[in-house]
Design goal:
- Helices cover 60% and strands 16% of the residues.
- By secondary structure, the chain is α+β, with helices and mostly antiparallel strands.
- The strands form 3 sheets. The chain has a two-stranded antiparallel sheet with strand order 1-4. A two-stranded antiparallel sheet has the order 2-3.
- A hairpin with a 6-residue loop joins strand 2 (72-75) and strand 3.
- The longest helix is centred in the middle third of the chain and has 64 residues, at 117-180.
- The radius of gyration is 40 Å and the shape is elongated.
Length: 261
């Protein structure tokens, strides 16, 4: 819905399409939740190695008369004495307890000061999911860029090829008229006719590419296939090539390091 409204307001550039696609991608959304779950797994693995404090509280309420030879024993408010009674009113007993557990050595961790293999495994899993998320993001950007360039390139070629078809149709009419007056040969008409057929075939292919690219771009942007997609018709400028120092810098550093070794 956001993409549809945004597309109707103004023409979309490549940057706009990439921003919308990154927000609409279900794979990226799933990757974010996977990363959150992996982070919780790391915290859970670490928590098992830390001190654990547990508490308990029990309360019992009772009243009534004794049913056997044993008496009911109560104490006064300050606990200074006890007495045996035939019956007792509502009385409560509370039992409170605290338990502290601090593992000295568990699963390869000493006092929880170093990460156990289970924690390291959870960290590696999260790092793997992080790489997966980055690769998914780059895949979305690549698909959007490819669909955008294909669509815009095809749309930019529609008008020139239509103009070429119109000119060839006029040329064919002129050649046929000249042939009827004996001013041109049949081979001239055949050549122009073949050029016209080729231009019509190319125009059909370009229109199909434009429609297919627009449908693919709408799908990637989360829009309906029937949505009117307006695009900036200018193709983005290619990025500047990296400098030789940037390309060879790491390789030179590695070679120098190996030479010293």
């Amino acid at each position: 819905l956001v993409g549809n409204v945004y597309a109707e307001d103004h023409a979309l550039s490549l940057r706009d399409c990439i921003a919308i696609a990154l927000g609409e991608s279900s794979k990226l959304e799933a990757s974010r939740f996977d990363l959150l779950a992996a982070g919780e797994s790391i915290r859970a693995a670490r928590a098992s190695l830390w001190p654990n404090l547990t508490g308990s509280a029990t309360t019992e309420m009772f009243e009534g008369e004794r049913t056997g030879k044993f008496g009911l024993v109560t104490s006064n408010t300050f606990g200074a004495g006890v007495q045996a009674n035939e019956s007792i009113g509502a009385t409560g007993v509370e039992i409170l307890g605290l338990k502290l557990t601090y593992p000295i050595f568990r699963d390869g961790s000493i006092f929880g000061l170093n990460d156990a293999p289970a924690v390291e495994s959870a960290k590696a899993q999260r790092q793997s999911l992080e790489w997966t998320k980055n690769l998914t993001r780059e895949d979305v950007i690549f698909r959007i860029t490819q669909a955008f360039i294909t669509t815009v390139s095809a749309q930019n070629r529609v008008e020139p090829i239509d103009r070429r078809v119109a000119l060839l149709e006029q040329s064919l009419g002129i050649m046929k008229e000249q042939q009827g007056k004996g001013l041109s040969l049949p081979i001239d008409v055949s050549v122009v006719n073949e050029q016209l057929n080729g231009a019509r075939t190319l125009a059909k292919v370009i229109r199909e590419q434009s429609v297919a690219g627009s449908l693919e771009l709408s799908r990637l942007l989360g829009m309906h296939a029937t949505s009117h997609l307006r695009l900036v018709m200018a193709l983005p400028s290619p990025p500047e090539p990296p400098s030789a120092a940037l390309l060879l810098g790491n390789a030179l550093i590695q070679q120098i390091g190996r030479a010293h070794v």
